[in-house]
Amino acid sequence: MLRSHGKPYFPRPELQNQILDYPEEAIRFYASEEAQALDRKPKILPIRQEQLKEQLGDSFRALDTPILLEWPNGDREALLFVIEEETQSSRFSIRRLIKYCLDITELYQTDRVVPVTIFTSPAPNAPVQLKLGGDRHTYLDFHYIKCALKELDATDYYQSTNIIAHMNLPLMSYPDDQKLEVFHHAIQGLITLETDPGKQAKYADWVDIYSHLDENEINEYEQRSGCRKTSLAMLK
After folding, report:
1. For an engineered disulfide with 164, which of 29, 48, 154, 177 has Cβ 3.0 to 4.6 Å away?
2. What are the 10-residue block averages of pLDDT along the chain, 236 residues in total?
3. Interatomic CA distance for residues 141 and 158, integer angstroms
4. How far is CA 78 from CA 58, 69, 117, 208, 233, in A?
5. What are the sequence ranges of the domains in the chain?
6. Which DSSP letter does residue 8 get?
7. pTM higher than 0.70 for the full model?
């Protein structure tokens, strides 16, 4: 039997696991406007999360999930993706994100960086741009890619071939009466796009947790067609 979950659960560490297990799919989903960089088949490398201290007594600043794209043939300069996750949009600081980007580009001696922030709660008021300047000139103009999952329509991703999109369906927007349908598409997408049983079980648990099915919904789902019961079997 599936588990029901009554308490909210914030998915920050699990999002990091998703990105580390499926970095290419994560870039294509969370930063689609920069995904063309993947077409030349770069090497995708998760990199250190703790940035170097300026002095020994300083505390570390830890990035969530920085990813480095490298082209072994040297035809393109390396590209950094700074992917941050925010479970509460009120805690987001665009100035902090700027500091992260400046620090990591200094560490890796590059100006090529793509900042991305994933919001798992509604974030209509999260600033997407910061301009600093005086009366005559703007001296700093910074923006980032914003992916607010709750602002995405789950039905738009039912037919997606991206496993990250399917796993995150329960975190998107949908009417309450579509909860079981969203759950079904998330599980079916996982089964179809991931063949490794261990990862299927790992992320089926993710879908289960964030779908927040109550006992009545669980029973209703278990009574559906044989195809859907097959989907359910991995969660028992």
Report:
1. 29
2. 41 80 96 91 80 45 78 86 92 95 92 95 93 95 97 97 97 93 94 94 89 84 60 53
3. 36
4. 29, 6, 20, 37, 43
5. 1-151, 155-236
6. -
7. yes
